[in-house]
Amino acid sequence: HRALRPLRVVEKTASQIAAGNLDKRVPEWPLHTEVGQLAAALNVMLGQLQNSVVDAQEKEQQMRRFVGDASHELRTPLTSVRGYTELYRKGMANDPDMVLGKIDEESARMQLLVEDLLALTRAEGARLEKKPMDVLEWVLSAKSTVDAAFPDRSVEVITDTPEIAQVNGDPDRLHQVLVNLITNAYKHAGPDAEVTVTIRKNLDRVVIDVADNGCGMEAKDAEHIFERFYRADSSRNRATGGSGLGLAITKSLIEAHDGTVKVVTAPGEGSTFTISLPAL
Length: 280
Prior knowledge:
Order of helices and strands: HHHEHEEHEEHHHEE
Number of helices: 8
Helix content: 55-70%
Strand order of the largest sheet: 2-4-5-7-6
Distance between the termini: 65 Å
Number of strands: 7
Shape: flat
Largest sheet: 5 strands, mixed
Oligomer: single chain
Strand content: 15-25%
Structural class: alpha+beta
């Protein structure tokens, strides 16, 4: 009876865990005994099981929030489209061109959101086609794309490294990242803001700084800027066509390359987004 008592404790603990009490653990006994080794192994297994359950619950909550946020973002332009359609149908809108223009504008916003949602999905589950990349060529290619889209703006490129900087990356994905960051600076730093992209090395990392001298952000906004659908100023960003997903896509793509992206900013002092990638 005395020899089997520890096993009855194990059985009771297992029953409590099966009932949903994932914090329960088997008492620790001396490891030189068979029961002690069994208890230690069970506790390790229970810890891993609890972490898996908690992780699954967090992912489910994130998915619910994501679906809810996406639905909310789509509902706004959909409501506008239905509203203008109903006004025209009831004869309350005397300018058909205005109505059609508003419907086309809201449809374009819905299309942008859907495209960004697909881009985010691809970024988080994409199979990257990596190859050695010259970082300067990558930056100049992104500059060329942005120059074509914003002919009245310019971005300065500075190379602060004596040797050729290379990374192992997917050219298309990393091109998208840099275009996103420069475009974001143009749209939200202010019409007169200047943008500078600096390439440098820090030990075994290649670092790219995308800096602007614009209006900057509050600390509370900078903490959440890479979250999905987050907007520092929802009305202003929605008016410029932003979906609130651009920086979330950027973060996912950089992390898929074993890199990091962060921002340093302050009101009136501009913003600097810093990408760090493993160097070749």
